Protein backbone atom coordinates (compact mmCIF):
# COMPACT_ATOMS: atom_id res chain seq x y z
CA UNK A 1 0.00 0.00 0.00
CA UNK A 2 1.21 3.52 -0.78
CA UNK A 3 -0.60 5.96 1.50
CA UNK A 4 -0.98 9.60 0.55
CA UNK A 5 2.11 11.66 1.40
CA UNK A 6 3.67 8.63 3.08
CA UNK A 7 1.05 8.58 5.86
CA UNK A 8 0.57 5.37 7.78
CA UNK A 9 -2.73 3.52 7.60
CA UNK A 10 -5.16 4.72 10.29
CA UNK A 11 -5.23 2.62 13.48
CA UNK A 12 -8.82 1.35 13.06
CA UNK A 13 -8.01 0.39 9.45
CA UNK A 14 -4.99 -1.60 10.62
CA UNK A 15 -7.14 -3.40 13.20
CA UNK A 16 -9.70 -4.24 10.50
CA UNK A 17 -6.94 -5.94 8.53
CA UNK A 18 -5.60 -7.82 11.59
CA UNK A 19 -9.05 -9.15 12.51
CA UNK A 20 -9.66 -10.10 8.86
CA UNK A 21 -6.36 -12.03 8.96
CA UNK A 22 -7.53 -13.83 12.12
CA UNK A 23 -10.70 -14.88 10.27
CA UNK A 24 -8.96 -15.84 7.04
CA UNK A 25 -6.34 -17.91 8.86
CA UNK A 26 -9.06 -19.90 10.63
CA UNK A 27 -8.08 -18.65 14.06
CA UNK A 28 -11.73 -17.63 14.43
CA UNK A 29 -14.20 -19.60 12.33
CA UNK A 30 -17.60 -18.66 10.87
CA UNK A 31 -20.26 -18.71 13.57
CA UNK A 32 -17.75 -18.20 16.37
CA UNK A 33 -17.63 -15.13 18.56
CA UNK A 34 -14.79 -12.68 18.43
CA UNK A 35 -13.05 -12.06 21.75
CA UNK A 36 -14.65 -9.30 23.79
CA UNK A 37 -13.88 -5.71 22.86
CA UNK A 38 -12.01 -5.35 26.13
CA UNK A 39 -9.77 -8.33 25.29
CA UNK A 40 -9.20 -7.16 21.73
CA UNK A 41 -8.31 -3.65 22.88
CA UNK A 42 -5.69 -5.11 25.22
CA UNK A 43 -4.41 -7.53 22.59
CA UNK A 44 -3.93 -4.81 19.98
CA UNK A 45 -2.97 -2.06 22.45
CA UNK A 46 -5.57 0.35 21.13
CA UNK A 47 -8.39 2.42 22.59
CA UNK A 48 -11.92 1.08 22.83
CA UNK A 49 -13.04 3.93 20.56
CA UNK A 50 -10.66 2.85 17.78
CA UNK A 51 -11.75 -0.74 18.20
CA UNK A 52 -15.45 0.17 17.99
CA UNK A 53 -14.78 2.03 14.75
CA UNK A 54 -12.94 -0.99 13.34
CA UNK A 55 -15.83 -3.26 14.33
CA UNK A 56 -18.27 -0.95 12.57
CA UNK A 57 -16.25 -1.23 9.36
CA UNK A 58 -16.05 -5.03 9.68
CA UNK A 59 -19.83 -5.16 10.08
CA UNK A 60 -20.25 -2.99 6.98
CA UNK A 61 -17.97 -5.36 5.07
CA UNK A 62 -20.05 -8.35 6.09
CA UNK A 63 -17.11 -9.93 7.93
CA UNK A 64 -18.97 -9.92 11.24
CA UNK A 65 -22.48 -9.36 12.55
CA UNK A 66 -23.40 -7.96 15.93
CA UNK A 67 -25.86 -10.23 17.75
CA UNK A 68 -27.71 -9.03 20.86
CA UNK A 69 -26.42 -10.88 23.90
CA UNK A 70 -23.55 -12.50 21.98
CA UNK A 71 -21.51 -9.67 20.60
CA UNK A 72 -19.53 -9.88 17.36
CA UNK A 73 -19.91 -13.15 15.44
CA UNK A 74 -17.93 -14.11 12.33
CA UNK A 75 -20.14 -14.36 9.24
CA UNK A 76 -20.10 -17.37 6.95
CA UNK A 77 -17.97 -17.19 3.83
CA UNK A 78 -20.01 -15.93 0.92
CA UNK A 79 -22.03 -13.48 2.96
CA UNK A 80 -22.68 -10.31 1.00
CA UNK A 81 -19.90 -7.90 1.98
CA UNK A 82 -20.07 -4.21 2.45
CA UNK A 83 -23.81 -3.76 2.36
CA UNK A 84 -26.47 -3.63 5.07
CA UNK A 85 -29.50 -3.53 2.76
CA UNK A 86 -29.13 -7.10 1.48
CA UNK A 87 -30.85 -8.06 -1.75
CA UNK A 88 -33.71 -5.62 -1.18
CA UNK A 89 -31.61 -2.80 -2.64
CA UNK A 90 -28.36 -4.16 -4.14
CA UNK A 91 -25.19 -2.16 -3.76
CA UNK A 92 -24.83 -2.05 -7.53
CA UNK A 93 -28.19 -0.28 -7.87
CA UNK A 94 -27.13 2.52 -5.53
CA UNK A 95 -23.83 3.08 -7.34
CA UNK A 96 -25.63 3.07 -10.68
CA UNK A 97 -28.02 5.80 -9.50
CA UNK A 98 -25.17 7.76 -7.95
CA UNK A 99 -23.14 7.59 -11.13
CA UNK A 100 -25.92 9.06 -13.25
CA UNK A 101 -27.21 11.64 -10.76
CA UNK A 102 -23.86 12.87 -9.48
CA UNK A 103 -22.10 13.03 -12.84
CA UNK A 104 -25.02 14.95 -14.31
CA UNK A 105 -25.31 17.37 -11.38
CA UNK A 106 -21.54 17.96 -11.41
CA UNK A 107 -22.00 19.17 -14.99
CA UNK A 108 -24.87 21.41 -13.91
CA UNK A 109 -22.86 22.79 -10.99
CA UNK A 110 -19.74 23.68 -13.01
CA UNK A 111 -20.94 26.86 -14.75
CA UNK A 112 -22.77 28.24 -11.71
CA UNK A 113 -20.65 27.22 -8.72
CA UNK A 114 -19.43 30.11 -6.55
CA UNK A 115 -15.96 30.57 -5.12
CA UNK A 116 -17.33 30.13 -1.59
CA UNK A 117 -18.78 26.77 -2.63
CA UNK A 118 -15.45 25.76 -4.15
CA UNK A 119 -13.69 26.83 -0.93
CA UNK A 120 -16.10 24.69 1.09
CA UNK A 121 -15.34 21.67 -1.10
CA UNK A 122 -11.60 22.22 -0.57
CA UNK A 123 -12.19 22.53 3.18
CA UNK A 124 -14.04 19.23 3.07
CA UNK A 125 -11.10 17.57 1.31
CA UNK A 126 -8.82 18.86 4.05
CA UNK A 127 -11.15 17.48 6.69
CA UNK A 128 -11.17 14.13 4.90
CA UNK A 129 -7.36 14.07 4.98
CA UNK A 130 -7.43 14.79 8.71
CA UNK A 131 -9.92 11.98 9.31
CA UNK A 132 -7.64 9.57 7.46
CA UNK A 133 -4.61 10.67 9.45
CA UNK A 134 -6.47 10.34 12.76
CA UNK A 135 -8.04 7.00 11.86
CA UNK A 136 -11.60 8.32 11.97
CA UNK A 137 -13.05 6.02 9.34
CA UNK A 138 -16.65 6.95 10.05
CA UNK A 139 -15.54 10.58 9.77
CA UNK A 140 -14.05 9.79 6.35
CA UNK A 141 -17.37 8.34 5.15
CA UNK A 142 -19.44 11.24 6.48
CA UNK A 143 -17.05 13.85 5.09
CA UNK A 144 -17.16 12.07 1.75
CA UNK A 145 -20.96 12.23 1.86
CA UNK A 146 -20.83 15.95 2.66
CA UNK A 147 -18.55 16.58 -0.33
CA UNK A 148 -20.88 14.86 -2.77
CA UNK A 149 -24.03 16.38 -1.27
CA UNK A 150 -22.51 19.86 -1.62
CA UNK A 151 -21.95 19.32 -5.34
CA UNK A 152 -25.50 18.07 -5.89
CA UNK A 153 -26.76 21.13 -4.02
CA UNK A 154 -24.53 23.45 -6.06
CA UNK A 155 -26.27 22.22 -9.22
CA UNK A 156 -29.24 24.33 -8.16
CA UNK A 157 -31.96 21.77 -8.92
CA UNK A 158 -34.03 21.19 -5.79
CA UNK A 159 -35.53 17.97 -7.10
CA UNK A 160 -32.09 16.39 -7.37
CA UNK A 161 -31.19 17.73 -3.92
CA UNK A 162 -34.34 16.34 -2.29
CA UNK A 163 -34.01 13.03 -4.13
CA UNK A 164 -30.38 12.67 -3.05
CA UNK A 165 -31.19 13.44 0.57
CA UNK A 166 -34.14 11.04 0.59
CA UNK A 167 -31.85 8.01 0.34
CA UNK A 168 -28.90 9.45 2.27
CA UNK A 169 -28.64 6.33 4.48
CA UNK A 170 -27.89 4.14 1.46
CA UNK A 171 -25.50 6.73 0.04
CA UNK A 172 -23.65 6.93 3.36
CA UNK A 173 -23.32 3.14 3.33
CA UNK A 174 -21.88 3.37 -0.20
CA UNK A 175 -19.21 5.70 1.21
CA UNK A 176 -18.35 3.23 3.98
CA UNK A 177 -18.05 0.21 1.67
CA UNK A 178 -14.71 1.11 -0.01
CA UNK A 179 -12.85 1.86 3.23
CA UNK A 180 -10.98 -1.44 3.52
CA UNK A 181 -9.62 -1.66 -0.02
CA UNK A 182 -6.09 -2.01 1.30
CA UNK A 183 -4.13 -0.77 -1.71
CA UNK A 184 -6.56 2.00 -2.62
CA UNK A 185 -7.33 3.63 0.70
CA UNK A 186 -6.19 7.16 -0.19
CA UNK A 187 -7.37 7.36 -3.79
CA UNK A 188 -10.58 9.35 -3.09
CA UNK A 189 -8.65 12.43 -1.93
CA UNK A 190 -6.86 12.86 -5.25
CA UNK A 191 -10.05 12.09 -7.16
CA UNK A 192 -11.93 14.75 -5.19
CA UNK A 193 -9.21 17.28 -5.95
CA UNK A 194 -9.60 16.63 -9.69
CA UNK A 195 -13.35 17.16 -9.45
CA UNK A 196 -12.92 20.45 -7.60
CA UNK A 197 -10.30 21.68 -10.06
CA UNK A 198 -12.75 21.13 -12.94
CA UNK A 199 -15.55 22.86 -11.04
CA UNK A 200 -13.33 25.84 -10.23
CA UNK A 201 -12.51 26.19 -13.95
CA UNK A 202 -16.28 26.07 -14.65
CA UNK A 203 -15.47 23.12 -16.92
CA UNK A 204 -18.72 21.16 -17.14
CA UNK A 205 -17.33 18.41 -19.37
CA UNK A 206 -14.33 17.95 -17.09
CA UNK A 207 -16.51 17.88 -13.97
CA UNK A 208 -18.70 15.16 -15.47
CA UNK A 209 -15.65 13.16 -16.54
CA UNK A 210 -13.87 13.34 -13.19
CA UNK A 211 -17.03 12.63 -11.18
CA UNK A 212 -17.86 9.64 -13.34
CA UNK A 213 -14.28 8.36 -13.09
CA UNK A 214 -14.33 8.80 -9.30
CA UNK A 215 -17.61 6.92 -8.84
CA UNK A 216 -16.50 4.04 -11.06
CA UNK A 217 -13.33 3.77 -8.99
CA UNK A 218 -15.33 4.02 -5.75
CA UNK A 219 -17.54 1.17 -6.94
CA UNK A 220 -14.42 -0.85 -7.73
CA UNK A 221 -13.08 -0.21 -4.24
CA UNK A 222 -16.41 -1.55 -2.97
CA UNK A 223 -16.04 -4.83 -4.84
CA UNK A 224 -18.09 -3.99 -7.94
CA UNK A 225 -16.70 -4.78 -11.39
CA UNK A 226 -15.49 -1.46 -12.82
CA UNK A 227 -16.07 -2.66 -16.38
CA UNK A 228 -19.72 -3.17 -15.46
CA UNK A 229 -19.86 0.39 -14.13
CA UNK A 230 -18.42 1.77 -17.35
CA UNK A 231 -21.32 0.20 -19.25
CA UNK A 232 -23.90 2.14 -17.21
UniProtKB/TrEMBL annotation:
The keyword Transcription regulation applies. It holds the Pfam family FCD. It comes from the Bacteria. CDD domains: WHTH_GntR. The keyword Transcription regulation applies. Residues 9-77 form the HTH gntR-type domain. Keywords: DNA-binding, Plasmid, Transcription, Transcription regulation. PANTHER family: TRANSCRIPTIONAL REGULATOR, GNTR FAMILY, UXU OPERON TRANSCRIPTIONAL REGULATOR. This is FadR family transcriptional regulator.
Amino acid sequence: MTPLNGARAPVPQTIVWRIQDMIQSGEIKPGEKLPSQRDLAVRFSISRASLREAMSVLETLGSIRIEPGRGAVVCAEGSQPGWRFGNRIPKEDVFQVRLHVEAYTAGLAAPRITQSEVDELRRTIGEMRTCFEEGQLEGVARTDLHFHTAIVTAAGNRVFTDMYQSFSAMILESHRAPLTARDRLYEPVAEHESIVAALERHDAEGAVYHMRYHLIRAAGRSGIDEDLCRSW
